[in-house]
Amino acid sequence: MKTLSVTHYIRYGYNRRFFLTAASAFAASTLFASCGHTDSQSNGEQLPKTVRIAWLKGNIGFFVLKTKGELDKRFNDLGVSIEWSEFPTIPVQLEAFNAGSLDFGPGVDASLVFAQASDVPFVYVTAEPPRPQSLAFVVHKDSPIQSVKDFKGKKVGYATGWNLHYLLVKALEANGLSPSDIESVKITAAADGMAAFESRGLDVLAIWDPFYALMEKTMQIRTVINGEGYTANRAYTIATPTFAQEYPNAIKIILEELEKVSRWADQHPKDVAELLAPQLNIDKDVLEAASRRRPYGVIPVDQKITDEQQNVADTFFKLGLIKKQIQVSELVAQNPVWLPDNIAKS
């Protein structure tokens, strides 16, 4: 797969083309079954010959998982190879899920809601701990805006259908406002939003890490709110329904190694920054700051997390951004085989 430059990465717009293509329906009852086939490769559990995994430079867990190479070694010892495919964004990655060319990868709350609404074939496997401090609405340091109530009548830049859109709606509601009370300005990439904000074309900008940390270092800004009290801003791991059904032991191996690198990332934010800096072309101190304000980990998708994601889905449905009501619980695939014994709880 062609590797895209960091400039392309931060400027890539929110690609919703794949959401217009419906995947074939699949039976929900198959999502929860454990494979009964046997194979001598790993304790009697069947393993595939190849596992196709997505990764993004901006997704720390999967980036470290690929870079350290321990998962490749473990699978190679079992006669399994990994095909790693790089993507610039989660929505673009989900196009590959829709095309049937991936087995496993990362996901994020808002994008997965749109994917489910258009029948993209995936199931939720695990979640990450909440990271509400990794996204925020910021203003210029000399701005008169002091609270969300002051957003009324102001130019607010955010990306439609992203996690920050959800945060905005919830924050406005909590302060007696609605999206119609602000002047919405569509932002399709972090770089474009930052440029518009710096030129004073925006009063308020929705921004996420590591670009949030970059703005804190390079611009005179003030944070009005982050996600605390409004959104968990979770990331997920996802798999195709077929892969989840047929290869639970392969998923267990992936999750065990992902949990190891997550613990390492939690304990070594400086090392994470040094690993990412040459890939993202962002200063190490910026990346370290972004890493320190978010936890890493592998968490089962329990009822609490399912309810959080359902709230995201319901909000976007009410806004008319997705055209049908969806039930997140229908795609939460649970299998005791694949959950490592020592993973955290939500």
Automatic annotation (TrEMBL):
Domain Solute-binding protein family 3/N-terminal: 50-268
Superkingdom of this protein's organism: Bacteria
Pfam families in the record: NMT1
GO cellular component terms, semicolon-separated: membrane; periplasmic space
GO MF terms held by the record: ATPase-coupled transmembrane transporter activity
InterPro entries: ABC_SsuA_sub-bd, Solute-binding_3/MltF_N, SsuA/THI5
UniProt keyword Transport, yes or no: yes
Keywords, sorted A to Z: Signal, Transport
Compartments in which it is found: Periplasm
Signal peptide: 1-27
Family, similarity comment: Belongs to the bacterial solute-binding protein SsuA/TauA family.
NCBIfam families, sorted: SsuA_fam (TIGR01728)
Protein purpose: Part of a binding-protein-dependent transport system for aliphatic sulfonates. Putative binding protein.
Protein name: Putative aliphatic sulfonates-binding protein
